[in-house]
Design goal:
Strand content: 15-25%
Structural class: alpha/beta
CATH architecture of one domain: 3-Layer(aba) Sandwich
Helix content: 25-40%
Largest sheet: 8 strands, parallel
Radius of gyration: 18 Å
Strand order of the largest sheet: 1-9-6-5-2-10-11-12
Distance between the termini: 7 Å
Shape: globular
Number of strands: 13
CATH topology of one domain: Rossmann fold
CATH class of one domain: Alpha Beta
Length: 304
């Protein structure tokens, strides 16, 4: 029997469904770790190994600008992008999907959303950018930044990363933590990729650092900002300019990676980069291109 997506793919409808793979208890697992803790990758690997398939996807990016109004249909786009049929065989996502984990009804909520549709495991790593708090209002839960943003409590597990008990991190504070984890996963035989949707300079640097470490990326062209900049660089063969911008700008992630400048010439962009289209003029919004990208990178599992 073929897998069928729910008829109503709205975030509100899917959020009411239970996790396809239930947690062992009633609560979501929650950990706090110092950024230099050598056991972080081991803990995250334990979560990834709960999934039926040895696949890890990081959902990176943001949802600022005009794309914010399109987020309701973007959730469905992500769901449809996790199903692909090739040679009469259906393939679906059954791995570990994780994001920045904040509860904003946007890209960071995608893993928990997918975990209510597919047999997959959801999680997150979130940098602590302010003193944490407990929301004493209606929603409850832990807040991790100065805006009072909470964590998505619909995930399987969440990890907050901090400098130490006193010092906080920047918005990109968990970047090297999760890149290191994904490299570890690849050494253990996992297929991995970072999905890029919208986003600013942090997202841009996430993509560049992933490529420097041999981790494939899927760019969702049409979601604006950094995603579209990355797509243009790939299509026009201008990756070098983006890398140099980050290498040469104080405060950007690659500014502390100057020793890796020569690695850029060794990156096989045709192997590591896929572009998916998000276009409201297409019947499926372009989700079939997203599904094909997942399939080509070995991120989907045959089920029929």
């Amino acid at each position: 029997m073929k897998f069928q997506l729910p008829a109503d793919l709205s975030y509100a409808a899917i959020s009411e469904l239970p996790l396809m793979i239930p947690n062992s208890g009633k609560s979501m697992a929650f950990d706090v770790a110092n950024v230099d803790d050598s056991e972080i990758s081991t803990m995250l690997l334990g979560e990834a190994e709960r999934a039926p398939a040895r696949v890890v996807i990081r959902v990176a990016g943001g949802c600022k600008g005009p794309i914010k109004a399109k987020m309701p249909v973007l959730f469905g786009y992500f769901a449809k992008g996790c199903v692909f049929e090739a040679n009469g065989v259906q393939h679906v996502f059954q791995g570990y999907c994780f994001s920045g984990g904040t509860d904003t009804n946007a890209v960071t909520n995608v893993p928990a959303y997918l975990a209510r549709i597919f047999n997959c495991i959801s999680g997150s790593t979130t940098p602590r950018t302010a003193r944490m708090g407990i929301d004493t209002g209606v929603t409850g839960g832990v807040t991790v930044d100065s805006y009072g943003t909470g964590l998505d409590t619909k995930q399987h597990a969440a990890m907050v990363v901090q400098e130490d008990v006193k010092e906080v991190l920047s918005w990109s504070g968990d970047l090297r933590v999760y890149i290191s984890f994904m490299k570890s996963c690849m050494r253990h035989g996992f297929k991995c990729a970072v999905t890029i949707c919208n986003g600013g300079d942090v997202t841009l640097d996430e993509a560049l650092l992933a490529l420097l470490n041999g981790i494939p990326i899927i760019i969702i062209q049409g979601t604006e900002r950094s995603a579209d900049r990355l797509a243009t660089a790939h299509l026009e063969g201008k990756w070098k300019e983006l890398f140099e911008e980050s290498f040469n700008t104080e405060g950007r992630e690659l500014n502390v990676e100057l020793g890796k400048r020569d690695y850029v010439d060794q990156i096989n962009f045709s192997d590591l980069v896929r572009i998916a289209k998000f276009d409201e003029n297409l019947e499926d919004l372009g989700a079939s291109t997203f599904a094909k990208a997942h399939y080509e990178l070995g991120l989907l599992t045959p089920v029929s």
